[in-house]
Specification:
The protein is of the alpha+beta class. It contains eight helices and seven strands, in the order βααβββαβαββαααα. The strands form two sheets. A four-stranded antiparallel sheet has the order 1-2-3-4, with helices on both faces. α1 packs antiparallel against α2. The longest helix has 15 residues.
Length: 189
């Protein structure tokens, strides 16, 4: 495993090695990546980006269940701490049981759930490393009620063009948030 800059060469290799379109978009806007290679092929990657230090991991399907996701996540957390980050955040599909289990095993705390649009549900979690991270954790927990979720839904709608900076996702790669859908499907966790 090694740490690399998310440059065009690495992105091309990730694309060639079958990384999903969604994660490729995420990795393109990441500050840095942890990559796992075997026989000159990238078999897994993890990255962090955006002002909320959003972390993401993807491994090739043929490597599922072999502990590679945990190795990448552990290295990502270690590198985040070494770079002086106060926290990492994640957005997890609650139906992805292996992702939920992985993040729970590292101590990520679930802050709130957002039903972003039809078919897109995300649990937002955080792993705080120090007091600054715990402040962000308290801030994120505020969205676990309907009033603040309405506020968040409106903000997301207005700030979609800033997603690459805020949460490390290219605006063109995710649907426009539906305020009505978010409010109608609010779930307190």
């Amino acid at each position: 495993m090694r740490i690399v800059k998310a440059d065009s060469e690495i992105i091309k290799r990730l694309e060639k090695n079958g990384i999903s379109k969604e994660m490729l978009s995420f990795f393109q806007t990441s500050k840095w990546l942890v990559i796992a290679e075997q026989n000159d092929e990238i078999v897994g990657a993890a990255g962090v980006g955006g002002i909320f230090n959003l972390a993401g991991v993807e491994i090739q399907e043929k490597y599922y269940g072999k502990g590679l996701g945990a190795l990448l996540q552990r290295k990502l957390i270690q590198e985040s701490k070494e770079r002086g980050y106060s926290f990492n955040t994640v957005m997890i599909n609650p139906k992805n049981e292996s992702s939920v289990k992985l993040h729970n095993s590292f101590g990520f705390l679930k802050c709130f759930r957002i039903n972003y649009s039809v078919g897109m549900i995300q649990d937002v979690g955080i792993l705080a490393f120090n007091w600054k991270g715990r402040l962000v954790e308290k801030f994120l927990k505020n969205f676990n009620n309907k009033i603040n979720m309405i506020f968040l839904a409106c903000l997301l709608k207005m700030l979609k063009s800033l997603f690459p900076f805020i949460i490390n996702l290219n605006e063109k790669d995710i649907p426009t948030p539906s305020i009505k859908w978010i409010i109608k499907n609010f779930e307190k966790i």
